[in-house]
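Please predict the structure of the following assembly.
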Amino acid sequence: MSEQSFFEKVYEVVRLIPHGRLTSYGAIAEYLGTRGSARMVGWAMNASFSARENIPAHRVVNRKGLLTGKHYFGAPDIMKQLLESEGVHVENDQIVNFEEHFWDPAAEL
DNA sequence: GGTGTGACCAGCT
DNA sequence: AAGCTGGCCACAC
């Protein structure tokens, strides 16, 4: 298991995010044991577009529930529509009731 | 093999 | 109160 790269771990956790749920970079980083390196998770997401399989990166937002990486989806509206498509309300590039949709891998896994 | 980077987080001013 | 800086670690050149 530990043979896989850090990116692979992040990808798998992101894939395990339930439909209609959200999590933060720091939560994933903490679950992976690299709490101080939340940036690594975000960076892994950037590489996720290079990944062969589709990574639901739109389910990952920052601690404030803000769609920081929306611009990286190729269009600023894709991330928002993906979230709304899953029943998650997004307003002003921010998740509505983020705490309710928040999914903690360390708690669920 | 060293430097730079990066979709963050938390603390300090 | 709000803005800014530093720190953190893994990957690419």
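Residues 24-26, 29, 35-46, 57, 60-63, 67-72 of chain A lie near DNA strand B (CB under 10 Å from a C1'). Strands of chain A lie at 23-24, 60-61, 90-91, 94-95.
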